[in-house]
């Protein structure tokens, strides 16, 4: 179990404990998908602390994973007081905490009370431990991600017939989001990026009232969510006949993506993958317009470790789901990006996002 992996890595002595504050990390270790919760791991117990708003949900989700769920009376007991009481019962002396997911002010106040009223004598900031565990997906996690990718593939196929002159970016984006929901997506993986013409040069642009015209590039970056796990895919089309420049840049980006995909293997670094793509984009006449980085891990969050770029020393392992998404973005002209989710399995590399990548003229 994931919680056992975390315990083996962090709680190496009987007098240690750990506090988890991040909603995403709490969901990862406990299964609880709500908010307003804190996880406390002691030598013998897994506690999930919440209030009346999420108590029943927490019992149903985290209780199945062996967590003791405690409903805090917010009117009569502060969170630091409850944590202190549990640490005192466990006789914990060393307390690890997620330093990236609590403010300095909050931690100073909480730790002062804990150290004054319990046996804890040492607090240790812990950053990235759970995030590293999250890099490697289990078969169950992968199944959810494959389903999310399949929903996105079908939703995109469903809206392509609606691409007509005069439709706006916003209208088409709303329809895409609706199709994903109709097919079973819990929510959108992130705010859908759907841009026409020169606006496709905005890597993270927001859909507007810009209407579609003949010759426009159409850039669509979106994803679905199943059991909290996300997909992330980008496809670029041309409305009407693609001109020579559109064809040239599309082929360039496609070559850059395929070069990186072909390099994915156990033990390769994120920097090495980035370099495969960069060798093509940065040696082209469009080098000044190449997007920075190559991709990122994806899972319960859209952007997870590893972050593929020139400084990424993280090694790719079996079960690691990453995006490969090179792009060229030329202000005033437009942008072309192609993105897929890929994973290394015992059987080899698997591409989760299946929508065709040929330059389609709609």
TrEMBL record:
<dbReference type="InterPro" id="IPR000994">
    <property type="entry name" value="Pept_M24"/>
</dbReference>
<feature type="domain" description="Peptidase M24">
    <location>
        <begin position="144"/>
        <end position="346"/>
    </location>
</feature>
<dbReference type="InterPro" id="IPR029149">
    <property type="entry name" value="Creatin/AminoP/Spt16_N"/>
</dbReference>
<dbReference type="Pfam" id="PF01321">
    <property type="entry name" value="Creatinase_N"/>
</dbReference>
<dbReference type="InterPro" id="IPR001714">
    <property type="entry name" value="Pept_M24_MAP"/>
</dbReference>
<dbReference type="InterPro" id="IPR036005">
    <property type="entry name" value="Creatinase/aminopeptidase-like"/>
</dbReference>
<dbReference type="GO" id="GO:0004177">
    <property type="term" value="F:aminopeptidase activity"/>
</dbReference>
<keyword id="KW-0031">Aminopeptidase</keyword>
<dbReference type="InterPro" id="IPR000587">
    <property type="entry name" value="Creatinase_N"/>
</dbReference>
<dbReference type="Pfam" id="PF00557">
    <property type="entry name" value="Peptidase_M24"/>
</dbReference>
<protein>
    <submittedName>
        <fullName>Xaa-Pro aminopeptidase/Xaa-Pro dipeptidase</fullName>
    </submittedName>
</protein>
<dbReference type="GO" id="GO:0008235">
    <property type="term" value="F:metalloexopeptidase activity"/>
</dbReference>
<dbReference type="InterPro" id="IPR050659">
    <property type="entry name" value="Peptidase_M24B"/>
</dbReference>
<keyword id="KW-0645">Protease</keyword>
<feature type="domain" description="Creatinase N-terminal">
    <location>
        <begin position="3"/>
        <end position="136"/>
    </location>
</feature>
<keyword id="KW-0378">Hydrolase</keyword>
